[in-house]
Write a structure and sequence with these properties.
This protein is mostly beta strands. The chain contains no helices and 14 strands. It is elongated. 33% of the residues are buried.
């Protein structure tokens, strides 16, 4: 793990200011009372205002996150965890890369139950 852990309580944003919501199946390994986010979890972007400049503009908001760099040594049930050093790419509904996800806040302490 390189840096603080990303949990389902972390704050993530797309490059256009949309909010990333994390849906995790992990309920066992936690940090600060919140389940650790896994690279295999569902990351849904809501409220992305991005439009392709055209006449008229074409809506092309970020809708999901694909993780490119995860924690290499920390896993939960075989799935890699995420930390502040992880790198993800926001994608549109057509799977077109829209830019990097920003990890705004994380949790520093980890535990397992």
């Amino acid at each position: 793990m390189a840096g603080p852990s990303v949990t389902i309580a972390a704050t993530l944003q797309c490059p256009h200011g949309g909010t990333v919501q994390i849906t995790s199946a992990n309920q066992r390994a936690k940090a600060g009372g919140a389940p650790l986010a896994l690279a295999t979890d569902t990351f849904t972007v809501v409220g992305c205002p991005f439009q392709i400049p055209a006449t008229p503009p074409i809506p092309s908001p970020c809708v999901t996150v694909q993780w490119l760099v995860t924690d290499l040594r920390v896993t939960v049930n075989g799935a890699p965890t995420l930390s502040l050093s992880s790198a993800g790419l926001c994608l549109s509904a057509a799977q077109v890369p829209q830019g990097p996800v920003t990890i705004v806040s994380t949790q520093a302490r980890a535990s397992s139950q």
